[in-house]
Amino acid sequence: MVHRPRTLILVSLAAGLVFVLARVLYRVVFGGAASGTTLLPSFPRVQLSGPFSHITLFGPVTLEGIAHAALSAVPFALVIIATGALVALFDPRALVVLAPRLRVGSSLVLAAGLAVSTFPAIVPSVSRARYISRLRGIKPGVRSLVSVLELTLEKALGTAVALESRGIRGHKFSVEPGLPAKPGPAVTLVEFSVPGRISRPLSATIDLSARILLTGATGSGKTTLLQAIAGVLELRGETGSRGTLHRGVAARGVAYLPHDPRAIFLTSRVVDDAALGLIARGHGRDDARSAASKALEAAGLGGLADRDPSTLSSGEAALAALCVLVVTEPSLLLLDEPLSALDEDHRAEFLSTLEDYASTSDVAIVVTDHPRHGFLPNGFDAWQIGEQGLVPGRFISAPSFPKRTAATLPEPDKVLVVQGLSIAFADRSVLKSVSLEVRRGQTVLITGENGAGKSTLLESIATGQNSRAPHDSRALIDCTPQERVGTAALVPSEPSSLFLCSSVAEELALADKVARVPQGFTALTFESLLSGWTEALGTTHPRDLSRGQQACLAIAVQMSHKPAVVLLDEPTRGLDEAAEVAFAEVVGCVVETGTAVVIAAHHRDAGSLIASRVLRLEAGQLIQDPVKAVVA
Fold it and tell me: Which chain regions cross the lipid bilayer (predicted)?
């Protein structure tokens, strides 16, 4: 979240004005604006009956009464405006850095900083909720409000997780009876399971010097296991786990990188985030910032030190987040699918950084990933989680997809024509006169590096505007002309943002209702996408699904509209091989009905099995990919 003083001041002024107007309206409606002699047009008195007979509505209205009502609201309005101005002129996230240095009242200052920091985040959350409602074809209303509240709660939980990773907490891990006082394993699992999330009991020992790559199918419990070890499940209040999980390291010694690396950042500068963990451990602010700067320089990230984390690309955020965590020298480092959102160059850079760190430090490391990437870092052992529990020494290599030969078919009708689409954010041009034609039943794969503009292109096609444009950046969209034929349905790169209901079953039913398709239609699509469907998933909250399961649900929901064009932004991120094959089969069936599909991905494998055209977005322009996937 970028700190934008102008926007915050305008919002606080508007809120103060609304409060004054509401106060005046209240006085008019309930007959409290009659003091004075200068009469204004009024409504006749209305005496309510029954239990409300003591209430009289409307009545005489005077100029003096209106003025008195407005003046009585001014002190409260000034408090609202002053609070907004304070937040605008002073970034409250700085309190997060200050809190660990205080000997008295640190928890209070930290809580105040986090609470006030939430205020600026509400505005973009509301905008995002309205945007998602448009994508789903639902009028903004109560469901949008629920979405805003859930996003706020997720932000609060993410903040708690980020604090845990820095050792700033009031929460402490429970110490299991029998935990050895002398150095022992970093983690010991004895018949450990989480009903509905880790079905098979897990028993294993992770040594203090372990280097583990943990793979497994979508929904097998990789993320849940890391969250349990990191203490995140305890923060969520999920205490229904069974068996035993011993942590042989101090709570401050556990560093956890969630699936979205941006979630761990708490301040407005990368260097302050890197210094935060050191400050929490007693280092002076200047010494901590100096050490953090040196760590960023050593990792080749010196240019990111003064950047706001919200402005980083996916690759930059992953590398910066890793540096932020390791600067505190943890005893156990947990990384949840850190490669899934990275292009090939950033993936290689991240792996190189991780291998260098592992070879020069005494730390246990557990990295989760799907074997699709086909990598095993030097010095790491492969483990697999699945039907047999947690099995060391198991690694499934990425599948080799068969190539298909091209077939000569008559050219179908065009369903999407984009010509001269240009988008710029402030002084940076993202898309430069992009043109694209998509025909009925065609599948187009658009590749490109992180930050190339793939998501921007898809969002612009779907909505005619770019939802990520900062309010004060004056995003420029010039499309001359852009022709849309039929309806374009977008699945964004963060599929959880599409969800509006409290259970998977409700989400599927809502999709059927909005798309006006037979009941159960969307559920069938979801089941065909997801291997390992169980009835228990129907009662699960969509945001509690694994990343891969969320992707399957979002794709099913948007496909229920049977649109002319389906736009999929990184659709296979978080999916295992079986789910990828199922996804390809479903997309193939959709294409056979005449629906066109446009897929944006940072690697070719995501859609090479089904793509009839492969394009690359580079330097703001679409070009033919030199390595083309040829599909019938």
Answer: 66-90, 102-123
State the total domains in the chain: 3
Give the predicted TM-score (pTM) of the model.
0.66
The two beta strands, 389-392 and 476-478, are unpaired
333 and 365 in contact (C-beta within 8 Å)?
yes
Query: Which H or E run includes 547?
Result: helix 547-559
- Those residues whose C-beta lies under 8 Å from the C-beta of residue 256, and which sit 6 or more positions away, are 161, 164, 165, 226, 227, 229, 230, 232, 325, 334, 336
Assigned domain for 244 exists: yes
Segment among 99-108, 221-230, 343-352 with least mean pLDDT: 99-108
**Confidence tier at 574 by pLDDT (50, 70, 90):** low
Q: Ramachandran region of residue 474, left (φ > 0), alpha (ψ -120 to 50) or beta? A: left
What confidence score (pLDDT) does residue 355 get?
87
Q: Which residues contact 410 (CB under 8 A, 6 or more apart)?
A: none
Strands (E) in 426-520, as ranges, are 428-439, 443-447, 476-478, 482-484, 488-491
3-class DSSP string for 41-103: EEEEEEECCHHHCCCEEEEEEEHHHHHHHHHHHHHHHHHHHHHHHHHHHCCCCHHHHHHHHCC
pLDDT, one tens digit per residue, over 447-469 is 888 778 888 888 888 876 544 43
Greater confidence, 321 or 253? Answer: 321
- How many whole angstroms separate alpha carbon 339 and alpha carbon 352? 12
Last residue of some domain: 41, 75, 90?
Answer: 90
Find the domain containing 33 and state its range: 1-90
- 342-351, 388-397, 405-414: least confidently modelled range: 405-414
Q: What is the mean pLDDT of the chain?
A: 76
> Which of 74-78, 231-235, 306-310, 399-403 has maximum average pLDDT?
74-78
**What are the φ/ψ torsions at residue 191 (nearest 5 degrees)?**
50, 45
Q: In the listed set 90, 118, 143, which residue is the last one of a domain according to the structure?
A: 90
Whether residue 280 has pLDDT greater than 50: yes
d(CA 294, CA 593): 57
CA distances from 426 to 305, 389, 492 (A): 21, 51, 23
How is residue 626 written in tokens? 């030199």
How far is it, in rounded angstroms, from Cα 600 to Cα 571?
8
State yes or no: pLDDT of 603 exceeds 50. yes
CATH number at residue 267: 3.40.50.300
Contact criterion met (CB below 8 Å) for 567 and 461: yes
